[in-house]
What we know:
Blueprint: H1 8-13, E1 73-75, E2 80-83, E3 90-91, E4 98-99, E5 102-110, E6 116-123, E7 130-138, H2 139-158
Amino acid sequence: MSPSSLDPSRTARLADPSPGDIDPRSLIGLRPTRYPKSGHHPSAGACPPWCWVEQDPTLHQHEITAGDPMRALHHIGEPIAVVASLYRGTPSEDGQHVQTATVEVDLTQVGGAEPVVDVSLRHWPDGRHAQEQRLVLTHEDARELATVLNHLVDLATSSDDRPG
């Protein structure tokens, strides 16, 4: 059935439903235009084994984002934070602690695309919170960066062993 063959009164009933309404568009085989942020997702593929949803797929469902709503977002759950001591931190709200600036590293994948490593800097320049995505790397790029970082750290720490 082509869209031009639909009578106007029937077409009006096929408009996007409101949240919670039954979607009459499904009666003619159309995909929904709205999806809950968790629930029946159009991406039916399994999560990669490192995705936080995979840890209990009976309890959790694929995540959906507005940026790419037809493909599931996979990630490790919470980014791994590493202290970034050369950047400004901030006092906690209760004044009892200081939050350091951090480099936050996440592993993400959208749908069946290759996974990427996301690297962000969270800091407080001039006392204002800022979180900046600095790098998005393929796993091969990330492995090479890790190799270089390890090499440079080894060079820096081996000079600590030399008499000065």
